[in-house]
């Protein structure tokens, strides 16, 4: 009988779906797979990046996203929209990390920006019901 350390990692698509299920079970709105529309904006996004890794991130609603981007482009970094955007992104990044860790996922930060990369393992955490 093979030990867990000898088992191959879980398929990326299976891990992706399990993470989506676990985050929905935690009570979070998980945005549908791309393409996102304005109606779907806001909430947790879970996707496979270009390296096949499962990534979890938070998207503020398009209204806040656009307002903050407009102020950044106008070099008004102290504008209320930018402050709200950064506050929301930081708080939700921390919350998502805590939730993912609580569901026994091993995570790491991406090289740039917010979000969490789920490290593959030989097993997927049991779904909470």
Structure description:
The chain is of the alpha+beta class. It has one domain (8-118). 38% of the residues lie in helices and 13% in strands. It is built from three helices and four strands. The protein has helices at 12-25, 62-73, 80-102; strands at residues 43-48, 54-59, 107-108, 116-118. Strands 1-2-4-3 form a four-stranded antiparallel beta sheet, with helices on one face. The chain starts with 11 loop residues before the first helix and ends in an 11-residue tail after the last strand. The mean pLDDT is 83.
Q: Any idea what the shape is?
A: elongated
N-to-C SSE series?
HEEHHEE
Query: How many DSSP E strands?
Result: 4
- Global mean pLDDT: 83
- Strand order in the largest sheet: 1-2-4-3
List keywords for this structure.
alpha+beta; 3 helices; 4-stranded antiparallel beta sheet; 129 residues; elongated
Note the topology:
Layout: H1 12-25, E1 43-48, E2 54-59, H2 62-73, H3 80-102, E3 107-108, E4 116-118
Helix pairs in contact: 2-3
In summary, what is this structure?
With 129 residues, the protein is of the alpha+beta class. The protein has three helices and four strands; from the N terminus they run H-E-E-H-H-E-E. A four-stranded antiparallel β-sheet has the order 1-2-4-3, covered by helices on one side.
